[in-house]
Design a protein that fits this description.
21% strand; 7 strands; Rossmann fold; 38% helix; 7-stranded mixed β-sheet; alpha/beta
Length: 209
């Protein structure tokens, strides 16, 4: 457990042992549910801690003061559940998780209930939640859609001043280039602390041409 605490503190320096315990328990819950529903690629389950949990946790350090978070297409809980468990240690924080797949949404609700994490699951399409979820500071998405589609989906909140933290793989520059004819935005590229071929795109001041 001490090795895992050190690994976690490499990406979230002030994280507590209680949060570590929650994340380890979530890992076990995820593995259990993965036997009956497809929460993540089976090929990655033996690397769940590093490839999914630590990869998700690193987002918190890019916006440690953010009060309200929104995770689009939460799937099996990456990064949404991981962030919820980290936010649990910070009074007044909250994250909304949007996942239209009912089986995955049921898993998310089960996990949040077990850990009493400060989050709400919206089991519906992203396009239908703009009027329900108000004024997030940060929007996250991981392995969900192309950058152009992400900007379209997140546009109602980005236009209101939210900042996006989108996790992308090695083809991210092509996705950025494909957006430039339709969108203008401020961009900061953060190299992933977990996967050197991946980045986190910090996007703000988004406008459609």
């Amino acid at each position: 457990m001490s090795d895992r605490l050190a690994e976690l503190r490499d990406v979230v320096p002030d994280v507590s042992r209680e949060t570590l315990a929650d994340l380890i328990a979530f890992e076990a819950l995820f593995q259990k549910w993965s036997k009956s529903i497809n929460l993540a690629s089976p090929a990655t389950l033996d690397q769940l801690w590093s490839r999914h949990i630590l990869d998700s946790a690193q987002l918190f350090s890019l916006a440690p003061g953010a009060q309200r978070w929104l995770d689009l297409g939460s799937g099996g809980g990456f990064p949404g559940i991981v962030l919820a468990l980290i936010l649990k240690a910070h009074d007044g924080r909250h994250i909304d998780l949007v996942e239209s797949n009912m089986k995955k949404a049921a898993f998310l609700r089960t996990a949040l209930g077990q850990f009493r994490a400060p989050a709400t699951v919206h089991a519906q399409r992203i396009e239908d939640t703009a009027s329900l979820i108000k004024d997030p500071d940060i929007i996250t998405a991981r392995a969900l859609a192309s950058l152009n589609d992400l900007l379209r989906l997140a546009q109602p909140w980005l236009a209101a001043g939210a900042t996006a933290l989108f996790q992308k793989g090695r083809d991210y520059r092509r996705e950025i280039d494909e957006c430039r004819d339709a969108w203008t935005f401020d961009l900061v590229e953060h190299r992933s602390a977990i996967d050197q071929d991946s980045v986190i795109l910090q996007i703000s001041n988004v406008q459609r041409y």
